[in-house]
Amino acid sequence: FLQCSLHENIKSLTNASIKSAKREGGEWRVEISVAPTCVDIEKCTDCGGCEAVCPVEVKREFGEGLETRKAVYRHYPKSVAKGYVVDAVNCTRCGECVKACKSGAIDLDAKGLEISESGAAVILATGAELFTVSGKGEFGAGRYPNAISAVKFERMLSFGSPSLGMPVCPKDGKTPDSIAFIQCVGSRDPALGRSHCSSVCCMFTLKQALFAKERLPKAKITVYYMDLRAFGKDYEEYIEKAKAAGIEFVRAMPSLLRQSPLDGSIEITVSRQGSLSTESHSLAVLAGGFGQGEEAKALCASLGLQISQNGFACGEFTPCESGVEGLLPGAFSPLEAPAEGVSGVRGG
User: Fold this and answer.
1) Are 99 and 49 in contact (CB under 8 A)?
2) How high is the pLDDT of residue 2?
């Protein structure tokens, strides 16, 4: 994305949404709505003065609330949209940021843009939306502080996180002595209408488990899974590396997680070799599955694409065919970067 934003023949529009896309006379016409950021990036000097005086503090989306941010804030590092933006939903319009901005870059009354673009073809890459793990109430996410999503744990492992890359228990900030990773939360689950495999979860869990083991060598790391999908190059070797590091793999899907009233640890009951056993873990990491978002489904339907049973706008065996002239499918479902690259080449 960074390279694309610097290319002279590529125009990048952030904070934008598609209003309509129609094919007329052999050409596509796309109507785009660009929401205002209320900060002129040409004038903004990134001094941070506006953020320092903003009285509003909300949970930061990047990392699912592991940190907080202000109503005027910067996007996560390496984002295409540089500079500060104003969160119109949480902004109280107190005007303190406007007063603090010496370059006059902030306009709380800024208007959005309506843009029309045309072209011979449309490449549609809707991506995928992460399942909110609190949607599986029996796992306690949102109720039990030490039952967290893989997204939040990923942010925790970053050296730029509040814990400086060390796994900690959100309830009390202590170092966990055991961590459970639970797979397929919101995927391979017909009861939720999400019977598909999200394909990428096993490998990113292995990465997180290995990082946790490297940083907490004495901690007990357990992965609870239904099936391990290690179908890429050297993926099986990655699993063997995890086993050699002492990470335990338990083929079982927990039906319920409970929080201990004594220390806040997470108790997991599973069936092992025909009998029930309960394990206690300091921290439980839930690997949420991926699916097609409702907005993406609506866009695909407006373009004449048929939605599959699992909610994706592509066939299981024809991921690069749309059936609509001039419409080239890109990224519709979660794939690792190499596989997604191949899909994009085929689609083009």
Assistant:
1) no
2) 65
Residue with tokens 């990428």: 200
Torsion of CA 208, 213, 219, 222, to 10 degrees: 50
**What is the mean predicted confidence (pLDDT) over 199-217?**
94
CB atoms within 10 A of CB 305: 21
The sheet carrying 257-259 orders its strands as 257-259, 266-272, 275-281
Predicted TM-score (pTM) of the model is 0.85
Ramachandran angles phi, psi of 9, nearest 5°: -100, 10
What three-state secondary structure class fits 104?
Answer: coil
Q: Can you tell me the distance from the alpha carbon of 341 to that of 318, in angstroms, rounded to the nearest whole number?
A: 16
Burial 20-58 (b: 16+ CB within 10 A, else e): ebebeeeebeeebeeebbbbeeeebeeeebbbebbebee
For the chain, the domains span: 1-120, 129-290
What mean pLDDT comes out for the span 79-106?
Answer: 91
Q: Output the CA–CA distances (angstroms, integers) from residue 213 to 159, 161, 167, 226, in the order listed.
A: 16, 18, 10, 22
* Per-residue CA distances from 253 to 265, 300, 339 (Å): 19, 34, 28
CATH code of the domain made up of 129-290: 3.50.50.60
